[in-house]
Amino acid sequence: MLPAVAWIGLLGLLPWWVGAMVLCVLVAGAVYFDRRYADRAEWCRRGLRWGLPGVLFALQRALGGDVLAWGAALLGALVGFSLVALLESLLDRRVRRATAGVATAEWRELAMARVGPPACIIELLPVDWCEVTGPFVDPHGEPARFEPASEGRGRYVFGEGRVIDQASPRCCFGPGGRWFVASLPEGRGDILWDRRGDHLHRLVGWELYGWEGEQPWLSQGVDGVPAPIHEVLGSGR
Fold this sequence. Notes:
Layout: H1 2-13, H2 16-33, H3 38-62, H4 67-112, E1 130-131, E2 135-136, E3 144-150, E4 153-158, E5 163-167, E6 170-173, E7 179-183, E8 189-194, E9 199-204, E10 207-212, E11 215-219, E12 227-228, H5 229-234
Antiparallel strand pairs: 1-6, 2-3, 3-4, 4-5, 6-7, 7-8, 8-9, 10-11, 11-12
Helix pairs in contact: 1-3, 2-3, 3-4
C-alpha cells in the first residue's frame, strides 16, 4: 500500500494536466505491453487505478476546492474508473481469445495425433501338414522316422536323439526347420518341439493355426482366435 499512497500523493501534488498526460502514457503502455510483457502491462494497470484519484484531487484543487470542484472531481472519478474498467475488460477479453485459440490448436493437434503404438498387420502362413508312416525328410538333414505303435499313434525318432512318443502320423516343420509339430491322437491338441532350445510342449486343446516368421500361432478349435506361442505358454494351459 505504501507505493500506492506515494503514487496518489505525487500525482495529487502535480498539476492536473501533467497527471492526465501520465495517465495517457499508462494507457498506451497497458495496451502495448499487454501481449508482450504481462508484468509491465500489470504495472501500467496499477498505475492507472491508483493514479486516477491523485489526478482528480489535483483537478479539484485547481478548480478552487469548493463544492463545485468536488462535484467535478466525483463526476471525473465515475467516468474515469468506468473507462479504466472498460479498458481492462477489453484487454482481458483479448488475452482469453488468444489463449482459447492456442488451446484449440493444441486440442486439434492432440485429436489428430496417433494414440498408442502403430498398428501392425499380422499375416500368418498356412500350415503344410503331411502324413508319415516311416522315414521322412528333416530340413536339418538328420535322419528322422515315424514308428507306428498302434492304430493312429506312434513315436518320432530324430537323429539328435529326441524321441516324441504318443503322437499321430500327422506332422509338419516350421519355416527354417526350427519347430517340429505333431498332432496328438484323436485331435486332442498338438505337440510342439522347439529344436533350438530342445523344449517340448504338449498343448492339449490347442492346434497349430499358422506361422509368423518362425513363430507358431495356435488356436483353440477352428473358430478360435489365434495366439502366439509365448501367450499360449504364459496362459498355463
